[in-house]
Input
Amino acid sequence: MKQIGFFIQTNNPLSGDQLILLKLARYLSCNENYKVYYINNFFEKDKKYYGGSNIIFIENNKFDEGIFEEAVFITPVNYLANLVVKIKNLKTAKICLFSYSSDSISWLSNNLGDKKAIDNLKRLISESQSCAYMDPSCTFDIKDNMNINKEILIPKCIDTELSERKGNKPVTQEDGTIRIAYYGNIDAQANNFLENLFRNFKSLRISKKVKVSLIGKIIDKNFPSSVFSTTMGLAVLIFPGDLEGRELYEYLTENIDIVFATDYCSLEAANCRMPVVIPIMQEKSYVENRYVWLNEIDKYIYHWNKELLSYLDYDTHTLKRIIETIYEKNEGNIIANNCFEYVKRNASTEFCCKKLLELMSKTELTVEKCLNSDAIANCVYDYDKYKKEYNKDFNSFIVYRNNGNRELIDPKALSDTKKRIESFSKIQNTYNQKIKAIRKQKIIKVGFIVIFKSTFPTRTVFEVMRRSTLFDPYIIVVPNIFSSRKTQDEVFEDTYNTFKTEYGERVIPGYNSKNNEYLDIGNEFSILFFANPYKHLVHKYHDLNYFLDKNVLPVYANYGFAAIKFWDEIINMDFYNSVWKVCIENNSNYEYMKKQQAIKGVNSIVTGYLKMDLLANEKIITKTRPVVLICPHHTVYGWKKLNISNFLRYSDFFAKLPQQYPSIDFVFRPHPLLFSNLESHKIWSSKTIENYIAKMKSFSNVIYDTSDNYFDKFINSDAMIHDCGSFIAEYLYTEKPCCYLMKSKEETYSGLLPFGQKCMDYHYHALCETEIIKFLDEVVLGGKDPVKKSREDFVRNELKVNYPHAAHSFVEYIAKQLKRNNKFMNE
Output
């Protein structure tokens, strides 16, 4: 049997246009008489593309060229040198190259030698008929190759064999609504397209309603504020989420008449039998009124800026003409079928595999010819020397080579990191002397610096110390100086009065709002607990740095349970590496700290999750109906590393649940920042927010909860539906079932710490409304909880460290560090 080796050597799972390699390999392994190999570094994510097929996976470090004597190798053009290094002894082996990006051509030009050598290599590739291109933009010079022979193009492809789609029903205009969608990542280019689209709509002066569904991930930090300023009063924006597969098909066919999309998204939309329009997409804002129907494309390019569209010379249409075609001429079904047939003819995996087989029959490029090229030969020679000395792979060699044969790590960066760690080590070394000085004190005065009444993670420690004969604890309320003066004063007064009412003289004001004076507590306390790691929120008198040269032991505990990778940013702050002790929830997070933190966990102690001790004090209330918490997160906008909120996708659905499930009592408890974020970023108006809250409150089986304490809701509920970070671990303390809302399983898990992933394993997962309904029907109402036993075992054995005595254990630890006896009084 003939052999085909698909070769690549990536440092990350395949993505985007790279995936065409696996699509082609999968199809050939299942439909042609070839033994197909996929050679790369191992990534679990890639398995979903080649798993279940006849592809034979070989890891790069286990590659043996001896089994490939009769093989034809297929590799992206920028991996040619990597491949030749692997198979340099297979002199007659044939090679097919594939260019899926102009960047791959640039990489080849910039990394393999001088201009003359590269020009000779390009000539060899051309004369040997060995390279296929995804489209003309992927060639050596797009302007010279705009009319390139289609025989050497292998375009983008999708799986068109999912199912035969039914045609859309003719567009009806009973409500006079124009229903369009943008499908794709909502990034800076999409932002500019939408602004231009709404300008075009304004110029039409149409009386119809316009509804625009934005289907995809919101990844532009400036979205949607700029777009909303353009759409005000013109269109209603809908956020269905990042849909795919059957869910995408159903949403489009039921709710949309025209889809605007580019690249693979345009093909996927056409595969759903939708009329598809490709707009201009570019990084800079633009004013233009030219659009192209997908079925009128003839060069396999599905993404362009203004300049490229002019080069392509396609027939273009104004927005007015597109709207007339669909809504006045009622030709939506005709356009949809034309787009669908275009994809079947030009973008199916079967079609692209036929093109690849043609390339394999024509290529005259061999390993021997490559080694006769100075660009490749010199690269292979240099790599052999590098490998003998360093024993690293080809990718490391390229970095080494481009750095002028310097060490792979930038010396300046290495020096700066070393200095930073040395600085932290000096700070840590000062604490031994401070401890010796503090030991001499009869009573240890302890301060707890608090900004917000709702953010006091070491409250349990304060409570325990109140009963101690050794410690004399006080709460110091300080203002948030990052807010306006008015807000600063209001929040400070509210927080101070709340704690003053509860703890009396044990609460100290760290601020005089009348005189705008900040209290200097530098020499007042021997131990200080911080509730905030951000220096910009507080006055310098209340920032950690102010106390580093004083006889003070600073301590920090996370307010939220460290379950998500956003913690990475926190643990490498100067603050986290400078405090005397950081309280860590469990051994898993401690091991993670040892790997990720600059000082490798030197100042960490596993205490358990301190604030959860309070859960044990909550009283259980007798009830006759199931109670479900709905807790949406606030990250609807601008969070790159904490993009977990699904509220815009499910807001309407949440408002339907009380009527759909009259036998369930719902507690709607959004994150305190959710609605303020929606308003401040102009996603929702204040009126929309008021109406939404009023609607939720109008249901007799809904409680709208904004109280500071949520542990009473935890203990008296039966289940939770949420997409928050800290609740991933916190709600598990109740040992009750929990449903987590995901954009995708892969995205959710990749954003979690190892222990967060463990916690997520004991959740039910919802990727759509149907799965939320299943959770309510089967788990909450039906009582079928198959995860119950394993969840309880996990919580009791791994999660509840020192619970419910974590604070008591930590206070005892501090006393031992000070070598002092500590007793507790009964108050």
